[in-house]
Amino acid sequence: MTKAEIVKSIALQTGMNPREVAIVVEAFMEEVRVSLANNKENVYLRGFGSFIVKHRAKKTARNISKNTTLVIEEHDLPAFKPCKSFIDRMAENPYPGTSEVIE
User: Fold this and answer.
1) What residues does 78 pair with on adjacent strands?
2) Largest Cα span, the chain
């Protein structure tokens, strides 16, 4: 699902103008970006999941085609961790687009 599809879906569900919905969705995404990138602060959404910052330590790696060793500096990566209820809901119907639970 793309951002445009999300905006369209929310606009249909709420009766809001799609332009206003797009502004709200973009503002939400920017707030998450700023929180993770600048503040290194996680974003917790109860019933959905968490956008978190994962720290990766400095490590050495090998380029096997050139037979050299290189150093990968420590860095932070954004990640998403779904909450338990989200995971359970996904497990209920592992085949999207169908209303049946296949056993």
Assistant:
1) 53
2) 60
